[in-house]
């Protein structure tokens, strides 16, 4: 038996990387499109206030943001599960642990419809956990002219 006339092809030793690059670029585009859509924390309807934005913010330091939703549930952005509510009994210990690792600014995002007392309770628990300065996050949609039109009589009917 002679093997005359049968040609053997050489095996290609190179890997074709073009499909891998294509897939990588598609994934990159998907991440670039979806990244701005991720909202920090839970959905909260912030109250409006004509407050000026903070002037000096350390961009390297991520703030600790406590969100209180309309139902009064508390969420912590730096927790292991930022989209899960934190029970009051575990809240203080979790905040103490986070603040002991790094001294980061603390902000509270309270929903416009939540009971004022609930937000105050959360702020007291933050103070007990060692947060020295706590800021409130508001929606800056109310203009200064709207607030200046209000008089003391409109605010206090006495």
Topology:
Elements: H1 18-34, E1 64-68, E2 74-76, H2 88-101, E3 106-110, H3 116-129, E4 134-136, H4 144-149, H5 152-155
Helix pairs in contact: 2-3
Would you mind describing this structure in some detail?
The chain is α/β, with parallel strands linked by helices and 158 residues long. It has a domain at 64-136: Nucleotidyltransferase, domain 5 (2-Layer Sandwich), CATH 3.30.420. The chain has helices at residues 18-34, 88-101, 116-129, 144-149, 152-155; strands at residues 64-68, 74-76, 106-110, 134-136. A four-stranded mixed sheet has the order 2-1-3-4, with helices on one face. A hairpin with a 5-residue loop joins strand 1 and strand 2 (74-76). It is elongated. The N and C termini lie far apart (115 Å).
């Amino acid at each position: 038996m002679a093997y005359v006339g049968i040609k053997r092809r050489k095996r290609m030793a190179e890997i074709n990387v073009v499909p891998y690059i294509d897939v990588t670029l598609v994934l990159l585009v998907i991440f670039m499109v979806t990244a701005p859509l991720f909202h920090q924390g839970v959905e909260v309807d912030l109250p409006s206030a004509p407050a000026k934005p903070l002037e000096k913010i350390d961009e390297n330091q991520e703030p600790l943001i406590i969100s209180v939703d309309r139902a009064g549930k508390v969420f912590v952005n730096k927790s292991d599960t930022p989209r899960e509510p934190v029970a009051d009994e575990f809240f203080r210990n979790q905040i103490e642990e986070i603040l002991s690792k790094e001294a980061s600014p603390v902000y509270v995002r309270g929903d416009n419809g939540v009971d004022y007392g609930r937000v105050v309770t959360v702020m007291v628990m933050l103070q007990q956990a060692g947060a020295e300065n706590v800021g409130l996050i508001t929606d800056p949609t109310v203009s200064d002219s709207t607030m200046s039109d209000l008089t003391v009589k409109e605010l206090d009917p006495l």
